[in-house]
Design goal:
The protein has about 160 residues and is mainly alpha-helical. Helix content is about 55%, strand content about 5%. The longest helix is centred in the first third of the chain and has 26 residues.
Length: about 160
């Protein structure tokens, strides 16, 4: 299967809309559960926290899958002082790819990926190699927003 080097506006908008709809659905379900009226919500909050990370970790896999045939925007090769190419860590697109691979192959722990040098200082979420991946709604929204902006900037036809 060949890489898709450019996406059209309709496809990008549809993916972004699906992502936003799923986030809104999470908010509705979590809000309805919290508003149920039971006096003891401690078990509910614990269950919602666990479900939230599973839900948004899976949403990250979906996000990566929407653009699975993209050319990897990373590693970018930039000349160093000697004129030789060196690998420079990428942005949100690389972060999504590293986190998705880590979820699938690393049991939910950020793995070092030689194809995608991971720079914690440049990452959207600030996760480091070895950190557990337990995304919240807010983390997913920040990362997805940065991801879609980068896809739009680099791969929109």
């Amino acid at each position: 299967m060949r890489d898709t080097w450019a996406y059209d506006r309709d496809y990008l908008d549809a993916c972004q809309s699906r992502s936003e709809t799923q986030v809104a659905m999470w908010r509705e379900v979590a809000g309805a559960a919290r508003d149920h009226g039971d006096a003891d919500v401690s078990e509910l909050e614990s269950a919602l926290a666990s479900l939230e990370s599973e839900y948004f970790n899976n949403m990250l896999l979906v996000l990566d899958g929407y653009f699975a045939q993209r050319p990897d925007l990373t590693p970018h090769l930039t000349p160093d002082a000697t004129g030789s190419a060196r690998t420079r860590p990428g942005g949100a697109v690389a972060e999504v790819r590293v986190l998705a691979r880590s979820l699938l192959d690393g049991g939910g722990t950020v793995l070092e990926d030689p194809d995608f040098p991971f720079d914690q200082q440049r990452s959207v979420l600030g996760l480091a190699v070895g950190d557990p991946i337990r995304l919240t709604q807010d983390q997913y929204r920040r990362l997805a927003g940065a991801f879609f902006r980068e896809i739009e900037r680099e791969l929109l036809a």
